[in-house]
Amino acid sequence: MASAVKRELCQQQALALVRIMNARRNAKGTITAITHQNPTAEMAPLYRHIIIKAARSVDKGIIDMKGNESWETLKIHTVMLVGYMGKGTKGIQKMREEIQAENEGVAIPAQVRWLSNPRIIKEREQRGEIKVS
Predict the structure, then answer these.
(1) What is the pTM for the complete model shown?
(2) Which are the contacts of 78, defined by CB distance < 8 A and separation ≥ 6?
């Protein structure tokens, strides 16, 4: 779907920075599309008719589109691995809960993840190469 929308936006000469990076269907059946990092969420509805036409070419069940949320990217560096990686730590779910608890009004709607492959991080920690990630 993301590919169809990108192609149609390009063919219709939409601003180059208005592009869908990916689209996923959640458990409730809602399709969520993430835009390129530069445009605001408010820019996509300007191209609503183009996006819906392209999306319907892939999935006839598309009814409408609307802006849902404006997400910021939060990258946290120098995370102590001992507290968030390994058995009994509750991992990055614990980190998510702590961020939300310590920052009133912050809700993290997306999956929290390591910036690198967790297996490689763990291997490097076990070899004593790193203590943080």
Answers:
(1) 0.46
(2) 132, 133
Per-residue model confidence (pLDDT) at position 129:
94
Closest CA to 118 of 99, 3, 62, 89: 89
Q: Indicate the burial class of 133 (C-beta count within 10 angstroms; 0-12, 13-18, 19 or more).
A: buried
Bridge partners, residue 33, by sequence: 23
Residues 6+ apart with CB under 8 A from 10: none
DSSP letters of 16-81? Answer: TT--EEEEEE-TTS-EEEEE-SSS-TTTGGGGHHHHHHHHHHH-TT----------------S-BH
Q: How long, in residues, is the chain?
A: 133
The residue type of 33 is A
Q: Phi, psi (5° rounding) for residue 22?
A: -160, 165
Tens digits of per-residue pLDDT, 82-119? 888 877 777 888 888 898 898 888 878 777 888 889 89
- Measure Cα distances from 123 to 34, 46, 75, 112, 128 in Å: 32, 47, 22, 20, 9
